[in-house]
What we know:
Layout lengths: L13 E4 L3 H12 L7 E4 L3 H11 L2 E2 L3 H5 L4 E4 L3 H11 L8 E4 L6 H5 L7 E6 L9 E7 L5 H11 L3 E5 L5 H9 L1 H18 L4 H22 L3 H8 L5 H11 L2 H24 L1
Parallel strand pairs: 1-2, 1-4, 2-3, 4-5, 5-6, 7-8
Antiparallel strand pairs: 6-7
Protein name: Pyrroline-5-carboxylate reductase
EC number: 1.5.1.2
Family: Belongs to the pyrroline-5-carboxylate reductase family.
Amino acid sequence: MSTEALSPSDLPRVAVIGGGVMGGTMIAALRVAGWPGESITVVNRTAERSAALAAEYQITAEADPRAALAGAGLVILAVKPQQMGDLLDAVGDAVAPGALVFTVAAALPSSFYESRLPAGTAVVRAMPNTPALVGAGATSISAGAHATEQHLLLAETMLRSTGVVVRVDEELIDAVGATAGSSPAYFYAVVEAVVEAGVMQGLERETATLLAQQTFIGAARLLAESGETPGELRRRVSSPGGTTLAALAAMENAGLQGVISAGMNAAVHRSKELGQQLAG
């Protein structure tokens, strides 16, 4: 992955279409990455949300997406997949020649965008996850048919402050969605289960929640900083004949690996299914 930084003079004007959670996250990332506020315009369905983002990040709010797209060299599409077709049919022809279209919508292939945009428009798909909100995200990017190395570099420059960014072939992006996009929800479900189990063992809920939260934070940090594999760290905690090994054996017998695999398979299947439905 290239780590070359773009100079301020290389940073294009930006139109952000959609000011929800991910749209707001992308705006924050742009500002941290060095984009001046006056070069960013946001469009959202509700004027109140646009005004709030404009005030928070010192950017411009615009009600008309076509006006926002005029002169924008980077277009960030952050609306729901179900809304994307109508949006592109309405304003796709207003995307400036040479602009990069960057989308955070799930399921829709780059060809979906390319068929609704001016011929030759570069598209980069991204699969972010919600920890990007606190600079600890894991985002994958994949290039469409017309995206170049420079387009990917621009996307990486924008995403630098959100956490880890990896490049993948587009055919793998559904797998990334199951592995990183959806997995924060898997993690929260496990934390909830650990808390409930702790309460059943007699702990106060507040105490169980604090212990589980800090333990998972610490375990993740140790994994990230130790350079060891999850398996190695797991074995280090699991003394022969001890309590942890007994717990892990019980979880394995209950089908832990199968449960996780089933969930991820379902996520990938639904992503492909949704993409086919929306792409027609």
